[in-house]
Each structure stands twice: as structure tokens, then as C-alpha cells.
């Protein structure tokens, strides 16, 4: 008790003493405010001296109490304002220094700043600078010490210093104390706070501050690390100004900084002085913003120095920020190279017809030769070889012209005569390396930053929507033929026995036509090469294979790729099929064990056997091993047409296995009677491919397309977590390439430009009987080539050039869209001649987007022909070290709308192939070709049940490339042929679906396939939705783009999803006529209940929707459009379907849905159909290329099963939509009557009441549907018998 009481007494006494001297000083000031007498000055000196001693001797409590007494602080500040005596000023400044203390930050400094201390101190410094008062250096040093401790609490510190002319005073003191490191520290601290302001930094730079800082840096050495750090931080602040950076470069500061960095790198082994090294790198980063700085760093060997230092530090996680800074500097200093291609245009151009209403955008491209061709009166662009020489020289000339026009336009904008658009005012933006999302955009705007479309610029669009396109009723009557369900009497269904083509989980081998099995036992390219060499023939493993000559008895043996032994004998030339040989046997049969997946579906108990005419695959297990015998594989009775050429024939003999049993084909051992998926028909695919028309010349049919490869069934492929430092390691490898140029190969191994120019006018899309012979090539490695072999000359393929930069590293360049110079994203190519277990790095070097899902877990897709032959015929996610980053290739201003200095981006991945001599296909996403669609349409035609389903497949129009655009109509057959039944069918609401307007969005086609599969199935839910709606489907809006490997455009070089406002009938036929269908429905009061355009999205995960909300429109109070009825339920009903999908589909994400109507989207399908055609539920459905980040499929890659599942569930959700309040289904369709006794062709009604859907079990529904269909067939059969 005595101790605490004594301390309290001493504190009280101390406070009394401080209070006494403060009151005494206050009385002296109040005695004469204007002028202090000599006696008063003496007393102030004594009082402030005593006060300083008390504060100096006091503890923390005393100092805290001092700042809490506002009278004390204000009194001392008033002394500084009135008194000019240097001793009094020194005493007061020292008092404040003691009060603040050395610990930063603290509350005492804030109190002093709030009382205006910094302003008063700057006033004293101004008087000292102008000479109105004379203060010794020690007082000025004390002032700077005080400012260094309180300045960080004053937000306007730098501005106050400049206004009070204190900058030069501080700089002069720094100069005079450059070797007095004890005094230098507070001066440099204050100067650092000054230079945080860019105006101050520029001002000080003009007064030789850069040189002064360098002298201090040189003088500090390794001892005075605090002063060195402060000097470098000052240099860092100053060099943020371009003028200061130029001064530093001019005085030769770059080599000094590099030497300083190297010295500290070598000395600082324990990483204690990271901040010093980081400050040096920050200065280098600032000066390399200038081209002169980049040049100076290159000339000083800075790239190599930084590269070696960064490699040394890369293993330490504490040095990550240092390594990142060094990487940024080195990337800035890369030599900015152009892509090694002759032109930014696609190597192949397409001559366009002339249109009086629309001028194609490609005609405005500076290096597009259309104007030359038109001027010369030619109908085509002439020889491609001559075109390239013209284009290469023309591009440089036009580039200068574009630059001059841009400068003139810039001057107009500065003068205020031309408004600056939002996109222009944003500038180039920043390169985000840490976000997978850029803007909250539609997929339609995925490439908005790179577009040069005139109508995409906001300022080129009116402030209100353009008037809707007007077409007369006479114009729209042409579309009556596409609505047979409204104008024709339905044909009576024909009951016939249709082969039920089923597919099991292992469907590739068990349900495909038998031609694949013979392909499995064919000779390798090496064997073929030896045979041709012995016969004196030439053999090319790359070009088309044509087998000519007379029948030859010679044969070769296929090689077991694992053992090297001969496994079968294969007659190559002129071999007769087994059925034409004596005894029906093929010669040279040998045995081989086949590794086929089991033909059973897991989880099923039933086993059924197909009665179709196809051959059946049977599994027999013997001694624990699966032994099978393959029958001969044939197209057209055992004959297989080779790729290209004149249709030469290779016949594969029948093959027998050890057990001697004949092997027959078997449909899926188990299947669902209600819903099934047909197997892919390779023969039908070949026939269909011959009827397509492409601009590119194809060499072959791609193996995955020919055999209908899909994603791995029942296999979840999870997103890949990128390892730490992968992107940095890839960049370091690129830097190493720049440093060691002599170690690069730079060997062009594939060049589409050369192929096109070499062919000249002979390069056409004409083709005949293309097939695939990849099975003949597996196992062959051309050791002399010592490189991979590439090919993309097939449907949907996209690869322009492949360059071998190092032995196992390749730079790949993608082709832009035809008649365009940008849109590089979709890739699909073949690679062969690889060595097993060797990592190969692939760099796609001309990507355009700022970021990619490759940085967030996505992998490219790969299909191995050898794995397919051995039983794994599916696309799999492949590749390690996948990442995406900016590279050193510079974009041509012609591709960026005249903006200079933009760079391309690199998508890089490493693949280790399992088999030597394999043939592999690599793709951005699961391909879905135009030929695949046409093949599926023919298979759907054979598969659907006409007794239940009303199905029509019509050709809507023909594209510019000469390909037909299919239009599907799907609904339920009317219950009878009477008028009432027909009226019921015709009164059903319409659902309008479209897909693939952007060719690179193949995921949209897989969803569409799932939709059509469901609608043509016998599932009870499918029958119910058919009885509720009429579906109009355009499954592929851009066949030409899909065929030719485009990513976004049609053959016109334009985004068709920006042409819905006023499509051109000549140049945009698919959009023109699709919109015509919708206009016709609108005219006959059949406006669709739902319009949905399927798309893909490259920057988001999950599947989601974009809709149209008037409240979120770019037009204020956008309620004057036909969709706004004033009814709250109707106007908000567009949100119902996404909510239902969110609860139904596991891959759908409601939180990603958006209903914004942007100005730039006014000409998209979604907005035009909503605004002009009065469809409230007008959507764009977006599906991710990558995967999902929520729900059941969280962290999983999206695959074809998920996409097709989305198509199924979308249709099922339409049943629930009809039951929702505000869905308007009741207004468009009368309630279904469950008691209706009307039948279809004398059959039973298949109608089910809506309210009973969720109450009846799935089994009950199936049983009921089977019963009704059986009854219908029996009655129809009886009627035919009586007739």
C-alpha cells in the first residue's frame, strides 16, 4: 500500500509541476500577444527548458497525460507561432520529440497532428528557407526528426511541404549531410514522405535529387543499411515519374543498380536484407516502363543477371516476392517479336457474294485482298501463293496508314469533337493473374476486348433501341412449309419392326458397327513401310494412303506393341473378303488376346439379347482370362475405303481366336426400354462426311469423330490444383530461350500456310470418300525425323503452325476465323511420332484473352488411338503444368482496332504419352462436328417411334458454304385423326431452341444432343413434355464455322450473334431465316413460351443462364417494350425457369445467372427475341468449358455425360414450368384432360395429368406407357388385318 501511494503522490506532483510551467508559459504569452519582451523571452527560455527536462525525465504515463491536456499542446504550438528565438524553438521541438517517442505509429503523433503541429512547423521551415529567420542546422535537424515521427499521420503532409516551400530546404540538408549518416536518417525519412507525392517527386528530380541519392547509395556501403534502404526507397518513389526514370537512365544508373543487386544477392546469404534487394528491383521495374530503360537493361546484361539471381532464390518461399519482381522485369525486357506467320489473316479466304444491304466487316480489314479481287473483276481471290506475297507487303504499308488515322482520331477526341467511348476511356486495363473472372459478361462478349466491330462500340449505337425489323406477311408466308404440324394432316403412323440399337456403358466397342474390330488388328506404319520398300513403292506416313495395283498374295503381320511379336496376318492389297474366299475363310489368321471392356452395364440385373441383324459380341471366360474372337471388319461387305484418292479398297480378313468359336456382335446386355442412346455408325458417318462442303481441304476424317468418341463414362475427372511456382517456372524456361538463342532448334514441323500456298488454285474443299487410317500408323516411329508430327486438316481442326523450339518443346500457332484476323481460342489437332514416357511441352502462343480457366484447374482433352484400340476409346483430361500467361509476341495493331503494344498470351501444358508411335488428338473441348450432327439426325430418324412422336427434319436454308441447316419439329402425335385431336396438338405452346452460333462452343452441341435424345426417347416424362409443347429446334446455326474450325465467326468473318437485329438474307442466311421462323410464329399468335440459345463460356464455371430484366436494362425505365405487360407475375416470370433448373440439375448454378440487358447486346438473339418478339423467357444458356465449383459436381471437370444430362433435365424442367404460377402455360394451352378417351390410330391415350407427375413413381409411368403402346399396336394391327 505504501508503494502504490508513493507512486500516486509522485505522479500527482509531476503533473502539478508540468501544469505549473504550462500555466506560467501561458501567462507570459497572454501578457503580450503581438510582441514578446526581452524579459519574457528569458522567462520562456527558462520555462521551456524546465518543461523539457520534466518531460525527458518522465515516464510513459507522464507523456500520455501531457498529450491529453489540450491546453498544454495548444500553448506550446502557440509559442512556435509567436516566438522566433532559436533556443525556445529548439526547446519546444525537443519537448514534442520526447512526447511522441520513437515507436511508430502511436496515438500521441495523431494528437499533435490534429492540433496543427505539422502546419506550424512547415511555417517555421518556410521562414528559415526565405531567410526571414535564422535557425542553426541542429534546430533544423530537430525539426526534421519531429516531422519524421509525426508526418505519417498527416494525410496532406506532402502537399503542405510543397506549399510551404520546404522541399528544397530538406533536399539541401540531405546534400550537406550526405556523409553524416547519423543526421541523414531523419532527413531521408522526411524526403521519402515528400516523394510519395508524384508532383513532389518530379520537382525534386529536376533539382538533381537522383544524383544525390546515388551518391548516398555509394557512400552507405554495407554498414549503413538503414540509410541505404531509405535512399533506395526515395529513388523508387522518384522513378515512378517517367522524367526521373529517363534522368536515371541518362546518367548510367542501370548498370550501377544491377551491380548493387548482384552484390547484395551474393552477400545476403541468410536473407536478412530482402527489403534492400527488393527496393533495387522496384527501381528497375520503374525504369523498364520506358523502352530506353528496357534497352539499357538488355545492354547491361540485366536479363541474364536477374535470371540467374532469380533461379538461386526460387527455392526459398521467403523470396517469392523478389522472384516475382525479377520475373516482371525480365518479361518487360523481352524482345517484342511478331508471330512467324506471313499474315494475320487466315491462310484460306472465302469469296463472299455481294449484298446490297450489308458490307462485310472483313472488307474493312487493312490487309484483306477482297477489294483488289473485285477491282480486277475476279470472282475469287486468285492463287493463294500470289496472295500471300501481296498481303505480306501490304500489311506493313497499311499498318502505317492505320497509325496515322488513329493519331488523327485521337486529336479529334482531344478537341472534343468526337465522344470517347467507355471502352476507349478504360485504356488497356491491367493483366490480372489472380482472377478467373473479368467482367460479368454474356458469353457473347467473351472476346469483346479484342473485337473491332463497329456496332460493338457503345458510341456507334443510338441512345435507344433501333426499330424492329419489318417483314410483311407475304414475306413470312414462305415459312408455312416449316410448320407442317399447323398446316398439314399428320400421316397415320406405320407400325414396323425397327432394330433397337442400344448402347452400354462400354458403348464404343460393344455397340459400334463391327468395322472397328478389324481396325484393331491392322499393321503398323513401320510394317507397311517395309512392305512398300520391298516392293519398290513409295510410302508416306503423312500423306493420304492409296493402295493400287493388281491383287497380291503378300501379307504382313501386325505387331504386338508391347511384346514386338507378330500377332495376326493381314492381306494388304487386293485381298478378297472372307465371303468370297473358298470355304469362306480368310488366309493367314492368327490369334490375339483382345482387351475389350465387358459388355454389361453396372448396377443392372437384367440381361437381354438383341435380335438385330448386326453381329454380336459375346464374352466367354476361360481359366480366368477373357478370350474373344473377332469377326471380319468391313464397310460395305468387308471393304474399307481409304482416305482421299480414288477410293482404293483395303479389306480386313476375318480373325479367329484360340477357342475356335465364331465371334458375333451383341447389343448392350442390358438396356432401358424407355430411354436409350444409339451407337455411333462409322459407315454412316463416312457417307455423310462426303456430302459436306468445306473451305479447307481435308486429308482425313478425325479418328474421334469417325468413331463417336465421348468423355470417359462414369468417370469423374477432377480439376487440377496447380502446383506452386508452375507459371513462374514456365516463364523462366521462356526467358532461358531468349538468353540461349543458340540452343534453339526453331524447326517448322507443320505449316498450313505453306500447304495452301504450295497448292495454289488446287487448294479446294472438294473431297471424296475420306476415311481414317490411324490404326495403320500406330506403332511406327520415324527416328530420322526426331520431332513430333502434326496435322489438323480434318473437320473442326485448327492448327496453323507448329515449331519445334527445343527437342521436346513446341510452339503452336492457331488459325484465326476465316475472313478474319482474330478469335484464337479453339484448337483441335493430331500429334504422332512420339516417344513414350517423355514429357512434351506444348505452347499455344497466340491466345488473346486476358485470362483463362487453364489457370484455375482446367486441362485440355486428349484421345489416344492406341488406347482406343485397347478398349479405352474416349476423351480424357490430360496435361500437367497447365497455365496461361502473357508472352513476348506482339499483336498487330490491325487485330486490336489500331491499339499498339498489346501482347498475345500463352496457354501451355505438358503431356507425357503412354505409347511410342501412338496417334493422339488434342482438343480445347469435346469436339462435335457438323458431320456428327448430320449422322445423328439420320440415326434419330431410324430410332424414334412414329406412333408416339411427331418428328420432322427439314432443311431451313443453305449456308454460304453450301451446307444445309437442319430444322427439327418434335411433339407428341395427336390422340386421333379427328378435328378435336388435331386442334389440341396445334394449340400446344412452342419451345424454340438453338445452338452453336459460335463454332468453338462445342459444349452447346452436346447439351443439344442430350435435349434431342430425351425428346425422341420413350421415357414417360419425354412423352409428357411432348404432349405439352411443340419443340422447334435449330441444332447448329453456324455449320460453316464448325466445319472449318472457326472459334466465333461464320465465313463472313462476323459474329452471327451480333446480327439478329437486322440480319442480311445473303450473308447471314441462318440468322435471317431462324428469325423469320420466330416472326412467323409471332404473326400467327404462336409466340414461343420459351426461347433458349445454347452457348459455352470460357471464363466461368458451372452451367447458368442469362435472361432479360427490364429493371436491369441499359435504358432507364425500359418498360415500353412488348414484354412489359404491367402484370408483376408475368414480368418477373423469366426468373422461374432458372430457379427450377437450379433445383433440378446438379451442374446448374443460380448464383451465376444474370438478367442484365446491356447496350452492346441489343443485337444478340436473347435481347432481340425478348424486345422485338415479345418472348419474356428469352435466355442464353451458358455451359462452362472447365467444370463446376458447387453442388454435386464440385471441383470436377465437365464432361459429355453432364452436358447431355443438362439437356435431359432442361426438358423435364419444362414440365414443372407449366405448373408454376405466372408461367402463362394456361393462357397458351388448355388443361390436359386425364379422362380423355381419344386414341392415336385407334390406340390408347398416353396423356398424364400434370398434378400427377410427381405422385406417380417412375416405374408406374414406364409400366403405363408400355401398356398403352402395346394396346395401340395391337389395335392398329387388327385394323390392318381387317382391311
TrEMBL record:
Residues 438-447 have a biased composition (Acidic residues). Its main location: cytoplasm. It is found in: Cytoplasm. Transmembrane segments: none annotated. Coiled coil: none annotated. The keyword Transmembrane does not apply. One of its GO terms (cellular component) is cytoplasm. The active site is at 1182 (proton donor/acceptor). Keywords: Cytoplasm, Hydrolase, Metal-binding, Metalloprotease, Protease, Zinc. Residues 416-474, 578-642, 1226-1248 are annotated as: Disordered. This is Peptidase M14 domain-containing protein.
Amino acid at each position: 500500500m505504501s508503494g502504490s501511494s508513493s507512486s500516486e503522490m509522485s505522479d500527482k506532483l509531476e503533473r502539478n509541476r508540468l501544469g505549473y510551467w504550462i500555466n506560467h508559459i501561458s501567462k507570459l504569452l497572454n501578457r503580450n500577444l503581438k510582441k514578446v519582451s526581452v524579459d519574457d523571452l528569458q522567462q520562456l527560455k527558462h520555462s521551456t527548458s524546465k518543461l523539457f527536462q520534466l518531460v525527458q525525465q518522465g515516464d510513459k504515463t507522464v507523456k500520455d497525460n501531457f498529450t491529453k491536456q489540450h491546453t498544454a499542446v495548444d500553448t506550446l504550438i502557440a509559442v512556435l507561432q509567436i516566438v522566433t528565438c532559436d533556443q525556445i524553438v529548439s526547446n519546444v521541438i525537443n519537448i514534442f520529440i520526447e512526447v511522441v517517442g520513437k515507436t511508430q505509429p502511436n496515438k500521441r503523433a495523431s494528437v499533435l497532428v490534429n492540433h496543427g503541429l505539422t502546419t506550424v512547423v512547415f511555417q517555421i521551415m518556410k521562414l528559415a528557407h526565405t531567410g526571414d529567420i535564422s535557425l542553426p542546422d541542429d534546430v533544423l535537424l530537430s525539426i526534421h526528426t519531429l516531422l519524421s515521427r509525426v508526418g505519417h499521420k498527416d494525410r496532406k503532409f506532402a502537399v503542405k511541404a510543397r506549399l510551404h516551400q520546404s522541399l528544397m530546404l530538406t533536399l539541401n540538408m540531405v546534400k550537406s549531410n550526405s556523409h553524416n549518416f547519423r543526421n541523414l536518417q531523419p532527413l531521408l525519412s522526411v524526403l521519402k514522405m515528400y516523394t510519395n507525392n508524384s508532383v513532389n517527386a518530379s520537382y525534386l528530380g529536376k533539382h538533381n535529387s537522383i544524383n544525390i541519392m546515388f551518391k548516398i547509395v555509394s557512400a552507405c556501403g554495407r554498414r549503413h543499411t538503414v540509410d541505404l534502404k531509405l535512399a533506395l526507397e526515395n529513388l523508387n518513389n522518384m522513378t515512378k515519374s517517367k522524367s526521373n526514370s529517363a534522368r536515371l537512365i541518362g546518367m548510367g544508373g542501370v548498370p550501377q543498380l544491377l551491380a548493387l543487386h548482384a552484390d547484395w544477392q551474393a552477400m545476403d546469404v541468410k536473407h536478412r536484407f530482402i527489403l534492400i534487394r527488393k527496393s533495387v528491383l522496384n527501381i528497375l521495374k520503374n525504369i523498364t516502363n520506358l523502352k530506353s530503360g528496357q534497352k539499357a537493361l538488355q545492354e547491361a546484361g540485366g536479363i541474364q543477371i536477374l535470371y540467374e539471381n532469380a533461379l538461386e532464390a526460387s527455392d526459398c518461399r521467403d523470396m517469392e516476392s523478389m522472384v516475382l519482381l525479377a520475373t516482371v522485369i525480365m518479361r518487360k525486357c523481352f524482345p517484342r517479336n511478331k508471330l512467324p506467320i506471313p499474315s494475320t489473316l487466315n491462310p484460306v479466304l472465302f469469296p463472299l457474294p455481294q449484298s446490297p444491304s450489308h458490307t462485310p466487316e472483313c472488307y474493312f480489314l487493312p490487309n484483306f485482298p477482297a477489294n483488289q479481287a473485285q477491282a480486277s473483276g475476279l470472282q475469287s481471290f486468285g492463287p493463294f501463293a500470289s496472295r500471300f506475297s501481296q498481303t505480306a507487303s501490304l500489311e506493313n504499308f497499311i499498318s502505317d496508314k492505320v497509325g496515322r488515322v488513329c493519331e488523327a482520331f485521337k486529336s479529334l477526341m482531344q478537341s472534343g469533337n468526337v465522344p470517347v467511348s467507355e471502352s476507349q476511356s478504360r485504356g488497356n486495363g491491367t493483366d490480372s493473374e489472380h482472377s478467373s473472372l473479368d467482367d460479368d459478361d454474356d458469353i457473347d462478349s467473351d472476346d469483346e476486348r479484342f473485337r473491332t466491330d463497329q456496332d460493338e462500340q457503345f458510341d456507334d449505337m443510338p441512345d435507344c433501341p433501333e426499330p424492329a425489323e419489318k417483314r410483311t406477311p407475304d414475306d413470312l408466308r414462305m415459312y408455312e412449309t416449316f410448320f407442317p404440324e399447323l398446316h398439314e394432316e399428320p400421316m397415320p403412323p406405320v407400325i414396323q419392326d425397327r432394330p433397337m440399337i442400344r448402347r452400354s456403358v462400354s458403348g464404343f466397342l460393344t455397340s459400334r458397327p463391327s468395322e472397328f474390330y478389324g481396325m484393331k488388328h491392322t499393321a503398323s506404319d513401320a510394317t507397311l513401310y517395309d512392305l512398300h520398300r520391298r516392293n519398290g513403292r513409295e510410302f508416306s506416313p503423312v500423306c493420304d494412303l492409296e493402295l493400287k495395283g493388281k491383287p497380291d498374295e503378300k501379307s504382313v503381320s501386325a505387331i504386338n506393341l508391347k511384346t514386338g511379336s507378330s500377332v495376326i496376318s493381314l492381306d494388304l492389297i487386293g485381298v478378297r473378303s472372307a465371303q468370297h474366299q473358298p470355304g469362306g475363310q480368310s488366309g493367314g489368321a492368327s490369334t490375339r488376346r483382345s482387351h475389350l471392356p465387358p459388355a454389361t452395364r453396372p448396377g443392372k440385373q437384367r440381361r437381354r439379347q438383341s435380335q438385330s441383324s448386326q453381329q454380336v459380341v459375346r464374352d466367354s471366360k476361360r481359366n480366368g482370362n477373357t478370350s474373344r474372337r473377332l469377326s471380319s471388319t468391313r464397310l460395305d461387305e468387308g471393304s474399307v475405303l481409304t482416305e482421299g484418292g480414288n477410293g482404293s479398297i483395303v479389306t480386313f480378313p476375318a480373325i479367329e481366336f484360340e477357342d475356335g468359336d465364331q465371334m458375333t456382335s451383341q447389343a448392350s446386355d442390358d438396356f432401358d426400354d424407355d430411354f436409350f442412346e444409339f451407337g455411333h455408325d462409322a459407315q454412316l458417318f463416312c457417307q455423310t462426311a462426303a456430302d459436306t462442303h468445306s473451305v479447307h481441304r481435308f486429308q482425313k476424317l478425325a479418328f474421334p469423330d469417325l468413331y463417336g468418341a465421348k468423355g470417359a463414362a462414369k468417370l469423374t475427372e477432377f480439376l487440377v490444383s496447380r502446383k506452386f511456382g508452375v507459371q513462374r517456372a514456365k516463364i523462366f524456361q521462356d526467358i532461358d530461350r531468349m538468353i540461349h538463342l543458340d540452343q534453339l532448334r526453331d524447326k517448322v514441323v507443320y505449316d498450313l500456310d505453306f500447304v495452301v500456298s504450295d497448292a495454289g488454285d488446287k487448294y479446294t474443299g472438294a473431297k471424296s470418300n475420306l476415311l481414317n487410317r490411324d490404326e495403320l500408323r500406330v506403332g511406327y516411329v520415324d527416328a530420322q525425323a526426331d520431332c513430333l508430327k502434326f496435322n489438323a486438316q480434318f473437320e473442326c481442326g485448327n492448327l496453323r503452325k507448329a515449331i519445334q523450339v527445343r527437342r521436346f518443346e513446341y510452339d503452336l500457332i492457331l488459325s484465326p476465323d476465316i475472313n478474319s484476323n482474330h478469335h484464337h481460342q479453339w484448337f483441335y489437332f493430331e500429334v504422332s511420332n512420339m516417344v513414350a514416357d517423355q514429357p512434351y511441352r506444348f505452347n499455344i502462343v497466340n491466345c488473346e484473352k486476358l485470362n483463362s480457366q487453364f489457370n484455375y484447374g482446367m486441362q485440355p482433352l486428349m484421345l489416344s488411338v492406341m488406347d482406343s484400340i485397347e478398349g479405352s476409346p474416349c476423351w480424357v483430361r490430360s496435361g500437367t503444368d497447365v497455365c496461361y500467361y502473357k508472352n513476348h509476341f506482339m499483336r498487330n495493331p490491325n487485330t486490336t482496332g489500331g491499339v499498339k503494344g498489346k501482347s498475345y498470351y500463352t496457354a501451355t501444358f505438358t503431356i507425357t504419352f503412354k505409347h511410342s508411335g501412338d496417334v493422339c488428338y488434342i482438343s480445347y473441348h469435346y469436339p462435335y462436328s457438323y458431320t456428327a450432327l448430320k449422322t445423328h439426325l439420320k440415326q434419330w430418324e431410324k430410332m424414334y417411334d412414329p406412333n408416339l412422336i411427331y418428328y420432322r427434319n427439314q432443311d431451313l436454308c443453305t449456308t454460304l458454304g453450301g451446307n444445309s441447316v437442319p430444322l427439327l419439329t418434335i411433339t407428341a402425335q395427336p390422340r386421333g385423326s379427328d378435328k378435336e385431336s388435331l386442334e389440341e396438338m396445334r394449340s400446344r405452346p412452342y419451345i424454340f431452341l438453338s445452338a452453336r452460333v459460335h463454332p468453338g462452343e462445342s459444349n452447346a452441341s452436346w447439351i443439344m444432343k442430350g435435349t434431342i435424345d430425351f425428346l425422341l426417347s420413350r421415357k414417360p416424362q419425354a412423352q409428357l413434355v411432348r404432349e405439352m409443347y411443340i419443340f422447334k429446334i435449330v441444332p447448329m446455326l453456324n455449320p460453316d464455322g464448325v466445319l472449318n474450325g472457326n472459334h466465333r465467326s461464320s465465313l463472313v468473318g462476323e459474329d452471327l450473334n451480333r446480327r439478329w437485329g437486322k440480319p442480311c438474307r445473303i450473308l447471314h442466311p441462318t440468322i435471317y431465316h431462324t428469325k423469320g421462323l420466330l416472326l412467323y410464329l409471332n404473326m400467327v399468335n404462336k409466340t414461343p413460351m420459351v426461347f433458349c440459345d445454347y452457348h459455352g463460356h470460357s471464363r466461368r464455371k458451372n452451367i447458368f443462364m442469362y435472361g432479360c430484366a427490364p429493371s436491369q436494362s441499359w435504358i432507364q425505365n425500359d418498360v415500353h417494350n412488348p414484354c412489359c405487360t404491367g402484370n408483376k407475375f408475368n414480368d418477373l416470370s423469366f426468373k422461374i425457369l432458372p430457379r427450377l433448373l437450379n433445383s433440378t440439375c446438379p451442374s446448374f448454378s443460380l448464383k451465376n445467372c444474370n438478367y442484365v440487358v446491356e447496350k452492346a447486346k441489343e443485337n444478340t438473339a436473347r435481347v432481340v427475341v425478348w424486345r422485338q418478339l415479345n418472348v419474356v423467357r428469352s435466355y442464353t444458356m451458358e455451359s462452362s468449358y472447365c467444370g463446376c465449383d458447387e453442388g454435386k459436381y464440385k471441383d470436377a471437370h465437365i464432361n459429355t455425360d453432364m452436358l447431355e444430362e443438362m439437356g435431359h433435365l432442361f426438358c423435364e424442367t419444362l414440365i414443372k414450368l407449366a405448373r408454376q404460377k405466372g408461367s402463362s402455360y394456361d393462357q397458351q394451352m388448355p388443361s390436359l384432360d386425364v379422362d380423355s378417351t381419344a386414341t392415336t390410330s385407334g390406340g390408347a391415350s398416353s396423356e398424364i395429368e400434370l398434378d400427377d407427375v410427381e405422385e406417380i413413381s417412375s416405374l408406374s409411368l414406364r409400366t403405363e406407357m408400355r401398356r398403352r403402346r402395346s394396346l395401340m399396336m395391337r389395335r392398329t394391327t387388327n385394323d390392318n388385318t381387317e382391311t
